[in-house]
Amino acid sequence: MMINQDVLPIADGVYARLTTPSAGWGLSNGGLIACPSGPAAWVDAPYDRRLAEEFRVASAPLLAPGGTVESVFVTHGNGDHLWGASVLPEAEIIATEETVHHIEFDPDPATMRALVHSGATDPVTRYLLRHFGGFDWSDCVPVLPTRTFTGELDLQVGRIPVRLRTVGPAHTSGDLIVHLPEQQVVFAGDVIFASTDEQPGDHVVHWAGPLSGIIRACQDILDTGAQTIVPGHGPLLDRAGVRSHISYLEYLAERAGALHSAGFTPYEAARQLATERRYPELGLVERLLVTLSSEYRYLDGSTETPNPLAVAGQMAQLAWELEESA
Ligand SMILES: [Zn+2]
Hints:
The chain is an alpha/beta fold. It has one domain (4-325): 4-Layer Sandwich (Metallo-beta-lactamase, Chain A). Helices cover 35% and strands 21% of the residues. It has nine helices and twelve strands. The chain has helices at 49-59, 97-105, 109-116, 123-132, 211-223, 239-261, 266-276, 288-299, 308-325, and strands at residues 4-11, 14-20, 30-34, 40-43, 69-73, 92-96, 147-149, 152-157, 160-166, 176-180, 185-193, 228-233. It has a seven-stranded mixed beta sheet. It has a five-stranded mixed beta sheet with strand order 8-9-10-11-12, with helices on one face. Strand 8 (152-157) and strand 9 (160-166) form a beta hairpin. The longest helix has 23 residues, at 239-261. Bound molecules: zinc ion.
C-alpha cells in the first residue's frame, strides 16, 4: 500500500498533515504550526520514522528562515501519533500527565514489530500483518513526553496562541485537543475519526470511553467556535461534519446500551452491529468491539485496566469470523 501525506495550508501559518488513503489503521493526521518569527511546532507525529522523515522534509520549506520545530503537541499516547517524534530529538514533547500512564500500557515499537512479524498464522497475527505490515519500526525508539500538564495549557508558538486542553478520558485516558483561537482551528486527535461522502473513513476505535465522554469532547470542540477541524484520522471536517459525527456516536451509545441490557457480550454486540450495517460506508467494523468493550466497562461500573492486546485479539477474531461468513 502506498501511503501519502499531504501538507495542506488551512490558516495563516497553520498546515494540516493529511494521510491518504484516509481509512485504515495507523494512517494518522497531524499538523504544523509555523510562525513567521521563527519557532514552529508539530501536532502529533507519524507512525514510523520513514513517514516522519518525509514530514520533516515537507515541513522544512514552510518554516521561517532559521526556524526549527521546537515542540510536538501529542494529542494522545498511541504510537501512530507519537513514535515518529523520534526524528526531532531536540523537540519538547508535550502531552497530558495521563498520557504518560497510558504509554506504559500500550505496546512499544519493538513489541509491535515483534507481534506483526512473528510469522505465526493465527487470526490475530494475520490481522496485524495485514493492517500494520506496511509500517517500519525497525529504527523506532520509544518516545516519552518531556513536558506534561493537567487541565489546560496556554502556549505561544512565536506569535501564534495555542491552547492545549485535556478532554480525556475519551479515545484514550489522556486525550488533548489543540485549539488555535485566532485561526479558528482545532486539531482533534482521535476524539474524531472523520468520514465524508467524498472520503469515507473507518468506524471508531475508542480504548477508554465512555461514548458520552467522547460526545462531550466533540461538543467541546464545537464550543471553541472552530470552523476547521483536523481529525486524528480521515478528511478535514467543518462544524456540520462534527455534528454528524456526534450523531453517529449517539447511535453507537444507544445501541450499546440496548444490547448490554439485552445480555449481549461485547463480542456478540459488535457482531450484531456489523450485521445491522447502519453505516455500510465505514471500514473496519470489527473495531466496534474495542469501542463496545470500553462502553461496557463503563456500563458495568468496572474500574479494571483493560489489556489492549487482549481486546485486539478478540477484534481480530471477529474480523476473521465476519470475513468467513461474508
Ligand atoms: Zn490514531
